[in-house]
Design a protein that fits this description.
The chain is α+β, with helices and mostly antiparallel strands. It is about 60% helix and about 25% strand. It has two helices and two strands, in the order E-E-H-H. The protein has helices at about 25-40, 45-65, and strands at about 5-10, 10-20. The chain has a two-stranded antiparallel ribbon. The longest helix has 19 residues, at about 25-40. The protein is flat. The chain starts with a strand and ends with a helix.
Length: about 60
């Protein structure tokens, strides 16, 4: 499987990560999955969505510490 490097645009020598190269079929599957997930997410009541986003923020803050 081929890969590509993602670099920091401010420091091109700084490789942020290496990822598998994807083709059109992979992109189509990802877009389809994202569209299906968005339809499910849209049915979640707003207070519940806010709770999920708040929890995600808390997790990110905890990891940053």
């Amino acid at each position: 499987m081929s890969t590509f490097d993602s670099v920091n645009p401010a420091r091109p020598a700084d490789v942020v990560g290496t990822y598998p190269a994807q083709g059109a079929p992979d992109v189509d599957r990802a877009v389809g999955a994202a569209a299906a997930a968005q339809r499910r997410w849209a049915r979640v009541p707003i207070p519940a969505r806010a709770g999920v986003i708040t929890k995600a923020g808390e997790i990110l803050l905890a990891r940053k510490a």
